[in-house]
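stage 2 :: seqdesign
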């Protein structure tokens, strides 16, 4: 697999949709995750990320313009003990509740499938970071229609044990803009992860399409202590 330049990947794609990045900082001391959302409609663009406990949630920037909250208002990030959950929908809660019951990441998602927004059939992308006793591993999942056929749901889970310093994986909902929007294909993309959280956040934000980008979340978790730093950037201020 070729390691891709995340800046180039984002600049050359006007609409990757929603995206999750997980990996390890170049110095090997931090577990890293990022999540961004984009929008084409007024309803989708009318959002901001706000902190909620150890996680975040989406919120309408202008409540008077909110029309349908069903697929745009949710908690993208929640923390349960040593686990940080990052997703593009309310399956964050499904995973959280599953882990509480002793289910695995994959088992927790068995009750879910792609989003009910035909003809796009938007994939549900999810990530789980586990940081404990100085160790870090992560998993990513995508639930998608079978080549746009809403009668069939395909499940893919990717697990990364002892990830390499300076490396990460990137998964997003759509291959590119279109009508209908084509779902992501293949395994999560291999990218580089730097040490500087603020610089990484700036590269991601500046590389996203100016018209379509909405919000960005980046978190660096100290693998030794579990302490973390977070940066949120919202287009709507």
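stage 2 :: out
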């Amino acid at each position: 697999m070729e390691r891709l330049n995340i800046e180039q990947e984002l600049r050359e794609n006007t609409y990757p949709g929603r995206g999750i990045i997980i990996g390890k900082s170049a110095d090997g001391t931090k577990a890293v995750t990022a999540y961004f959302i984009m929008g084409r409609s007024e309803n989708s663009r009318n959002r901001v990320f706000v902190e909620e406990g150890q996680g975040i949630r989406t919120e309408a920037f202008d409540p008077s313009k909110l029309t349908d909250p069903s697929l745009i208002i949710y908690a993208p990030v929640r923390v349960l003990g040593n686990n940080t959950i990052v997703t593009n929908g309310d399956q964050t809660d499904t995973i959280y509740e599953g882990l509480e019951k002793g289910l695995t990441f994959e088992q927790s998602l068995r009750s879910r499938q792609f989003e009910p927004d035909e003809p796009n059939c938007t994939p549900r992308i999810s990530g789980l970071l586990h940081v404990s006793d100085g160790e870090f591993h992560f998993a990513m999942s995508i639930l998608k229609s079978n080549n746009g056929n809403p009668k069939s749901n395909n499940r893919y889970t990717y697990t990364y044990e002892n990830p390499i310093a300076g490396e990460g994986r990137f998964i997003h909902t759509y291959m590119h803009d279109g009508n209908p929007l084509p779902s992501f294909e293949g395994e999560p993309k291999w990218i580089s992860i730097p040490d500087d959280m603020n610089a990484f956040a700036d590269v991601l934000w500046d590389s996203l399409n100016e018209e379509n980008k909405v919000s960005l979340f980046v978190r660096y978790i100290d693998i030794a202590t579990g302490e973390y730093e977070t940066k949120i950037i919202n287009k709507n201020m």
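stage 3 :: structure notes
- The radius of gyration is 16 Å.
- The first helix runs from residue 6 to 11.
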